[in-house]
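Morning, I've got a small favour to ask if you have a moment. It would help a lot if you went through both lines with me. I owe you a coffee for this, so here goes:
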Amino acid sequence: QVQLVESGGGLVQPGGSLRLFCATSGFTFSMYFMRWYRQAPGKERELFATITGASITNHVDSVKGRFTISRDNAKSTVYLQMNSLKAEDTVVYYCNVRKVGMNYWGKGTLVTVSS
């Protein structure tokens, strides 16, 4: 079955960096778009980064230039490099794959940006 496991979250100071990981299994990773979403308490989950199987990427304006999605098809892993972190980046981050019309999610990883 499809499994997604996020890791790499934690506490970081404003202006700092973190790298998130999403390890996957249960599907042919290289064939699927992968996405990163984030969700603040009481708000809807927000898509902010997408990567195709060929590593073509798209980032929303609010993270463009600060966050970078990437992938390693040999390791079935998608990454999120986050730089210049701000307090408002303090949310739970989820990776996602859509397969045969269904969305699959990991449990998320919490990033806290605070001094």
